[in-house]
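Support reply, case 0932

Customer input (verbatim):
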Amino acid sequence: MHPETATLTPPSADSPTRKFAIAALNGTAIYVLAYYGVWAAYQLAKVALSHKLGLHGTWDPSRVTYTLADREWWQLAVLGVYGIGPLVCFFIGLATFLWYWKYERAQRGLFKLLLLWVAFHSCNAIFGSLLADSLRQEGSWYVSEWLLRMGNAADVAVALIAGLIQLGLGHLGSVAFLQAHDSHTVMKFPNRKRMVFYTLMWPYVAGGAFIALSKVPYFSMHEALHLLMVGLLIFPLILGCSSDPFESTVERAQPSYVAWGLVILAVLAAVGWRLALSPPVSFG
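Our regenerated output:
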């Protein structure tokens, strides 16, 4: 008698593991692309207003810095250049979320997930950045400092409120995030732990690492804290998605596939940003 030989069957093209891997890659590309889009609008608005006000500085791949002495600043300039970015992101975030919620969440495809990540990054550019900047007393912290002029206690209170708002919005955003996925396999409630790992944690960690590495040696602690603050959205999203039994999705979901167009766009965005701002661009 011959011993039985076990035959190893290769994983199916439609296996759950493959679908989650595809969701992770697509989600990371969308995370990176949305990040660059939001911060391009943020910093372009800041530099444009700085140029109009006659302020001097440099713009590198990681941040905008000024070469003015303290005595050369005035209140309108401070409130303008450090407030214009969050203001622009407020309108971008509001517009993209409403677009997603009213028109895209019941549609097939990845465009709705892109809109949602733009809204999330816009939220972080306002609330997460205020908390991060307050830790180092720079950036958007100057807005509350010059506007309130009530000392450190008031600034700390504003920063903590911003952090709490971001946590709250992350929790509320879990419903929207669940509706942004088409795959029936990914959306099954028994797969929820894998779903939040591959579609939330993986883009957050891998996307953040890719952004940081693409900007070395210009990558700054200023931007590192901003990237970390996205976690104030991510972790409430994870908790909300993990406990919500919602698992419906579009009736005719598209087969899982790698969106190579989005992957290439994300890489091109990073390379283009680096080339355009390296060496740093002077303004004013």
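We compared this against your earlier run and they match. Two observations from our side: Strands lie at 57-59, 64-66, 281-283. The longest strand covers residues 57-59. Please reopen the case if you see a mismatch on your end.
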